[in-house]
Design a protein that fits this description.
single chain; alpha/beta; Rossmann fold; 41% helix
């Protein structure tokens, strides 16, 4: 095993990546390794945008959202020809270990890379959707939830002032985790997510009764992946419940922002466990966080299985 190790951010950015980069440099140097940054995801591997990292590179970034080294999705990395180019670029720098901050698609890409070329790697789950199987927590989730919380609290102020229903759309194309946790912790009246079938007719009588009893506003939290779009839900409030409605799509503000204390701490722990695992001979793994603590899991048990929401949490929608 060589002494050179690189880190890469792939897919959607999350708050917590910059704290991870900072600790990557510090922890590798403490272990007498030479750290490298791969800029702009897998495209950086192909374009040879790989540079040795120093303390100066990570000074002052712990409080910044996003990622200093950039992130991207790469269709070219799916082609064996370009993976060979990436391997040649790593070989030229004597790098045989990679840490990837990303989601299951990013991990599957490195799984293929490892099988073809033997580049050892450890994945760190990093997605605000929290939709990676095998881990209860993904880097960036806590910051995203706190940004949503702040937004919901502000929206509630104007909803109650104007006696309106607000339909607030969170990210989560295939996973309703953000919407569900927000619903539970915000006290909203309605939550719609892809994992749970719903019929708006089931809410009509209850909501109309609440209106007649004096309720001034409603908050509905919906995931972007539900069968109806947010505007249709707002129209339902106006036509069936009889209350003026607005839609607020939170969008990409959920990905950015000052990383929370918890995401900073978890970034440090994820990176330390990832590096320790590689040094301990775990050549192809994902570091996951569960009720048992941190665990090294195989790619097959993480990237090739669909994440399901906790049944205990889903009961709050019944």
């Amino acid at each position: 095993m060589g002494n050179n190790i690189a880190i890469i951010c792939s897919g959607g950015d999350v708050s917590g990546m910059n704290p991870a980069l900072k600790h990557f440099v510090e922890y590798t140097k403490a272990n007498k390794l030479t750290p490298y940054f791969v800029y702009d995801g897998y495209e950086g591997l192909i374009k040879n945008h790989i540079k040795e990292a120093s303390y100066q590179d990570v000074a002052g970034i712990i409080n910044r959202g996003g990622t200093k080294i950039g992130s991207a999705r790469s269709k070219r990395f799916e082609d064996a020809k370009y993976r060979q180019i990436a391997k040649n670029n790593l070989d030229a720098l004597d790098i045989d270990m990679l840490i990837v901050l990303g989601g299951d698609g990013s991990f599957r890409g490195l799984h293929t890379f490892y099988k073809e070329h033997g580049v050892k790697f450890c994945g760190i789950p990093s997605t605000i959707d929290n939709d990676i199987e095998g881990t209860d927590y993904c880097l960036g989730v806590d910051t995203a939830l706190n940004i949503i919380k702040t937004s919901i609290d502000a929206i509630r102020d104007t909803a109650s002032s104007f006696s309106r229903a607000f339909v607030v759309e969170t990210m989560g194309r295939d996973c309703g985790y953000l919407a569900l946790i927000t619903h539970i912790t915000s006290g909203s009246e309605l939550c719609l997510i892809p994992e749970k079938k719903y019929d708006l007719k089931n809410y009509e009588e209850k909501f109309i009764q609440e209106r007649e009893a004096g309720r001034r506003y409603f908050l509905a939290i919906v995931s972007e992946g539900i069968k109806q779009n947010s505007n249709e839900i707002a129209q339902w409030f106006e036509q069936k419940i009889g209350i003026e409605s607005r839609v607020s799509v939170l969008g990409h503000i959920q990905r950015g922002g000052n990383p929370s204390i918890y995401d900073r701490l978890m970034a440090y722990k994820f990176v330390a466990f990832a590096i320790d695992g590689l040094l301990d001979g775990k050549d192809e793994s994902v570091i996951c966080y569960t009720k048992k603590g941190f665990e090294y899991k195989s790619i097959e048990n993480v990237a090739f299985k669909k994440k399901t929401l906790d049944e205990e949490l889903l009961k709050y929608l019944e």
